[in-house]
Every structure is written in structure tokens, then in C-alpha cells.
Amino acid sequence: MAATATRTLESTVPCCAPVTESALSNDEATEFAKVLAALSDPVRLRLFSLVAAEGESCSCRLEGPLERSQPTISHHTKILADAGLIVGEKRGKWTWWRIEEDQLARVRRVLGGT
Amino acid sequence: MAATATRTLESTVPCCAPVTESALSNDEATEFAKVLAALSDPVRLRLFSLVAAEGESCSCRLEGPLERSQPTISHHTKILADAGLIVGEKRGKWTWWRIEEDQLARVRRVLGGT
DNA sequence: TCCTCCCATTGACAAGTCTCAATATAAGTG
DNA sequence: CACTTATATTGAGACTTGTCAATGGGAGGA
């Protein structure tokens, strides 16, 4: 399940010192690269910003703006969820997605943010 | 030339409002995804952090730690430079790389940083 | 000038990614 | 129990990416 799978990466990225301060290890770089890779696709970036802007969104509201098929949207939400960047909660037939602020803050911090 | 090519993306990403505030347009997302893609590879992340940690580094000092061939290192420095994340300066036989703090700060800002 | 060293480019291949059609699953509705 | 709806999974095709061997180009040294 997507919602629980996200916990995996969240906890295995404790994380590391900012890249601007000391060189990343191989493992740290591999872990962190996965999170950045999740954000490095135009469709996923827009998906992410749509969810963030709405506060919460079901998958069915994303197909239109993103102009992608339903399986493709599902594919992208899974990648973002696996990276710990969004979390899905099932309510009835719908899956509601929201962004995981903590993980986003972690990304900024590793990129030298405060 | 890498050093001047970096200016391209830097100026075409003015950039946009943080993803947490409003949905990105297609063009904004495409531009910004390129910058994130440059950072979404383990070897490039380590390369970037090595350069940052040293303040400055020539390519020849990267092959060892990164355990990649010379053409591969050159390939990665080019991608980071094209994304405006590092800048290379030729001094004699060597190319010295340093990170572009402004572009890194821009990335953090689009990701909701201050 | 010739040789060496550093870096960039080209070409090729394996592996990964994005996309959609088709299908499966799971929850509500009648 | 059918039937519809929302999402997930599978499979396949086109495209992209990471990698290295081979080669090219430019700068300095003998």
C-alpha cells in the first residue's frame, strides 16, 4: 500500500549533512538521489505542486490538468509516495494525496538549506 | 564552452513561485525538472558535494573518489554545468569547478525554502 | 617540434523511464 | 448479486540515460 510504503525511505534518510558541507557517501547519495529523481520529472513536479496547492487532492482531479492517462497518474503518484514526498489516504473509493512537508524540508536541508 | 553555457538555464529560470504555493506551469516544470534531474544521480550528487566540500576542484581529482572513467566524469560535469549548478574555469591544462550557490539557493526556494 | 597530460567528444550498448491499452482489484450503488 | 466508479498492476513499445573504449583537441614541457 502506498501510504505505508512511504515510511521506508523516510526513515532510511535520517539524513546526511548538507552537500555543501561535506562529501556524501555512496549510500547517502544513492538514497537521496532517489528522492530527487522523484521530483525531476515535469509531470511529477506539476502533480506535486497541484497537490500542494490544493492541500489535498484525489487522483481523479489530476488526470485533467496533467493531460495523462489514469495509469500514468497512478505510476507517478506511486513514485512520489515511495520517495516519501506524498502520502495517500484511502477514503471510500478515493485516494486522497497530500504532500509530506517533513520530507520536502529534508530535501531543502540536504541542499544546504537551514 | 561549459562555463558560458551555464548562463543559459540560469537566466531562463527566473524562476517560479515555490511549488508549495501554486501549481507550476508546463514550461516552468520542464525547466526546473532539468535542474533537479542534474542532481538526481548518485555520481553527480557526490561529484557536486566533493566540489562543494573542496571549494574548488579539477576533474582529475574526481575520477578517484567517484570510481568512474574520465569520459564519464566529463559527461557528468557537463550536465551539472548545463543546469547552472557548477561553473568551470580553465587554468592552464586544468578545468577548475566550483558550485554556483545562486542556482542551488534557487532550487531550495522553489522547493519551498525561504 | 614532439611528447605528455588534461579534458571533451563520439559511438555503442545495457539498463532504466515514460507512456498507454488492457486487465485486475476494491469500494460503493442499485 | 450485478453494475459502476476510482485506483492499481501488467505488459509492451519508444525514448532516454549511464557507462566505457576510442579518438580528438588544446596547453605546457623537453
Order of secondary-structure elements of chain A = HHHEHHEEH
- Distance between the first and last residues' Cα of chain A: 33 Å
Q: Assign the structural class of chain A, choosing from mainly alpha, mainly beta, alpha/beta, alpha+beta, or little secondary structure.
A: alpha+beta
Given the structure, what is the number of helices of chain A? 6
By CATH, the architecture of chain A is named Orthogonal Bundle
Please specify the SSE layout and strand pairing.
The structure is a homodimer of 114-residue chains.
Chain A: H1 2-12, H2 26-39, H3 42-54, E1 57-58, H4 63-66, H5 70-82, E2 86-91, E3 94-99, H6 101-110
Antiparallel strand pairs in A: 1-3, 2-3
Chain A binds a DNA duplex (30 and 30 nucleotides) through residues 2, 41, 43, 58-60, 68-78, 90, 92-95.
Outline:
The first copy, chain A, has 6 helices and 3 strands, in the order αααβααββα. Chain A is α+β, with helices and mostly antiparallel strands and 114 residues long.
Structure description:
The structure is a homodimer of 114-residue chains. In chain A, strands 1-3-2 form a three-stranded antiparallel β-sheet. In chain A, 40% of the residues are buried. Chain A has helices at 2-12, 26-39, 42-54, 63-66, 70-82, 101-110; strands at residues 57-58, 86-91, 94-99. Chain A is built from six helices and three strands. Helix content of chain A is 57%, strand content 12%. In chain A, strand 2 and strand 3 (94-99) form a beta hairpin. Mean pLDDT of chain A is 89; it is low at 1-13. The first copy, chain A, starts with a helix and ends with a helix. With 114 residues, chain A is of the alpha+beta class. Chain A has a single domain, classed as Winged helix-like DNA-binding domain superfamily/Winged helix DNA-binding domain (Arc Repressor Mutant, subunit A), CATH 1.10.10.10. The interface between A and B is medium-sized, with 35 and 35 residues. The structure holds a DNA duplex (30 and 30 nucleotides).
